[in-house]
Amino acid sequence: CRQLFRSPSMPSSVIRPILKRIDRPQDRDTPVKTKRRRSVAGTPGEEAAAEPVARLLRSKSFCHEEIENLLANDHRELIGDFSKAYLLQTVEGKHQDLKYISPEMMVAVLTGQFSSLIESCVIVDCRYPYEYEGGHIKGAVNLPMEQDVEEFLLKKPIVPFDASKRVIVIFHCEFSSERGPRMCRFVREKDRACNEYPHLHYPELYVLKGGYREFFPQYQTHCEPQDYRPMHHEDFKEDLRKFRLKSR
Predict the structure, then answer these.
(1) Bias regions of kind Basic and acidic residues — which residues (predicted)?
(2) 12 pLDDT exceeds 50?
(3) Which residues carry out catalysis?
(4) Domains of the chain, start order
(5) Cα–Cα dist 99/112, whole Å
């Protein structure tokens, strides 16, 4: 019976369906009609006290920036498209906006410990070709220039055959201090530009902490050839100058 009395805060369009009742004979008193007359005869204050006030709340929509801020505070550490958590355990690195993995975690991926969850792992070696040729992680691809990595990864994106599995990309350079992190950010930026937010071709990007310089001494058997050629090698000064000019 309280539904017959509309709260002032509720629009009439909401209450109208409630007021529609089946017509009944008007010539007899019923317990319900007697109770209704009593409530009508009460004071306005009594009626207001008996009436529960319904509240209508307006829904709130968030912009992309607000969504990113909310997810950034989520302890689950979601990947770039916010579909799931990062698979690989990460460690502290130089750049707080990037996800770093240890050499040990890299070896775990190389030895197939995540093969049931990862369909394809692309290791992007961002060093210059003479460094790569002097020794690199087995299976790594040498993509030292932005146009190289854009051609390899984004012109024809790698899509898993099994939708339940992942495609991950791991970047590194000599120390993973500048070239690797810069290339990682470049791929994410270009990936965002060619997809409708928040979708990405490569939502799960990592950087190898310490780069090849830290990986090689510990895991030489996972390198080919088993050697390490630094960027500032005496015999390749001209190559260094040439590639630095091209990368500007």
Answers:
(1) 20-32
(2) no
(3) 173
(4) 78-247 (3.40.250.10)
(5) 20
